[in-house]
Amino acid sequence: MRKEGNGCENLKRYIGLEDMSNVNCSSVLRVIQHHGGLSRRQIADITGLSWGGMTKIVNKLFEHGYLVEEKKEAAAGNGRIPGVISINGERHFVAGADFNTTGLSAYVTDLSGNVKKEYAGTNHFEDRDELLDNLFRFLERIFKDFGTDAIQVIGIAMQGRVDAKKGLSVCFPGCVGWKDVPVADMIREKFSVEAYLEHDPDCMLLSGLENEGGENQILFRIDQSVGMAVSLQGRILRGRGLLEVAHGIVIPGGKPCKCGLSGCLEAYIAPCIREAGPDKEAIEEMIRPLALTVHNMAGVFRADTVILTGALVGYHGMFEEQLLSELKALKVDETVTIKFVDDAGLAVRGAALFAAERAIDGIKV
Predict the structure, then answer these.
(1) Beta carbons within 10 angstroms of residue 149's beta carbon
(2) Vertex 332, ends 331 and 336: CA angle to 5°?
(3) Number of Cβ atoms within 10 Å of the Cβ of 288
(4) Are 221 and 208 in contact (CB under 8 A)?
(5) Which stretches of the chain are assigned E, i.e. beta strand?
(6) Which segments within 110-150 are labelled E, that is strand?
(7) Cα angle vertex 276, ends 275, 280, to 5°?
């Protein structure tokens, strides 16, 4: 998972409790997950737990199949080598799925994020019911292979507006009759598994946070529209409709947008990719509106890194030089790193990482 801190920030407020609760187990497991494998002494040192308290928690996690220990034989005369405790990669799986207009994909992973199996499917639909049927039939493949007992949590990366707190897909691009659909509750009811919705740019950003530097990061997903995600000091900023930039006006009195306004960023982004491929003229017209948006958001959030991804970024060779030149003219801070990143697997991996976080938070032993 993400590498900032030591992984036990939420633990120490609980260590004075006489009877360790499930949240202590979650926090110890997160420390082990964060470091990839630790000895008992290291777990105690990092968490600040007493030897007895640490042992009690670790034994609980062993008992319920969350942990495994690798023991190595010491050479003659060298004393005992401490065992390395790590997350059990053969039990307690999660699933992450990317649900968008062009198709469906999913990963089943262990709680460390190691992929056990990948899935892919098409997504042709005319209305709300057909779209939901596509999703449910796709998920049935996963549960047929692994069973609902093995999958603890499923995370869904959704296009369109998402209310993650309520598990609602507020709207979905191009789908007739889709409004405030309680997708998470529907999955819980149908498959008897914990389910959560996430905005797909948030999933993409979480996926990148594992290995990318920069305290404050912004991600723009650019295809037929624009989605944005923000990480401040390693924490993703979330909230219903909080970061909707597609219909922010960047060119007053500019091109008409399907939303009824004029000069929205989406009005310049949407025409850039046609069925026949990228539209060179539309891409040239899009550069300044996109540069203005990047400039404004980088300033508001004091970004260290701006990540551009999505279908349009696959053609970044057609506009990268001009965009960077425009950003320079707008005096975007030279310390801001601009990255063009292939979006393959980002959303689905991020959805699985969100699911793993939820699974660890919800451990009951």
Answers:
(1) 10
(2) 145
(3) 17
(4) no
(5) 67-70, 84-87, 93-100, 103-109, 115-121, 151-158, 162-163, 168-169, 194-199, 217-222, 226-232, 235-236, 273-274, 277-278, 305-309, 337-340
(6) 115-121
(7) 110
Is residue 66 a contact partner of residue 110, using CB atoms and an 8 Å limit? no
Q: Which residues contact 238 (CB under 8 A, 6 or more apart)?
A: 164, 199, 202
pLDDT, one tens digit per residue, over 215-258 is: 899 999 998 889 999 999 888 988 776 788 999 999 999 999 98
pLDDT digit string (tens) for 127-167? 899 999 999 999 999 999 998 889 999 999 998 889 999 99
Q: Which residues pair with 168 in a beta bridge?
A: 163
Residue 19 has a CB neighbour count (10 Å cut-off) of 6
C-alpha to C-alpha distance for 270 and 44, rounded to whole angstroms: 54
pTM of this structure: 0.86
- What's the structural domain count of the chain? 3
Cα separations in angstroms, 208 against 100, 172, 205, 212, 234? 19, 24, 5, 6, 11
d(CA 333, CA 346): 27
217 and 118 fall within a common domain: no
State the CATH number of the domain containing residue 57.
Answer: 1.10.10.10
Domain boundary (61, 87, 113) is at: 87
Question: How many Cα atoms occupy the beta-carbon half-sphere of 174 within 13 Å?
Answer: 12
Q: State which residues form the domain around 151.
A: 93-204+346-361
Q: Is the dihedral of CA 140, 141, 144, 147 positive or negative?
A: negative
CATH code at position 235: 3.30.420.40
Task: Identify the CA nearest to 217 among candidates 342, 276, 301.
Answer: 301
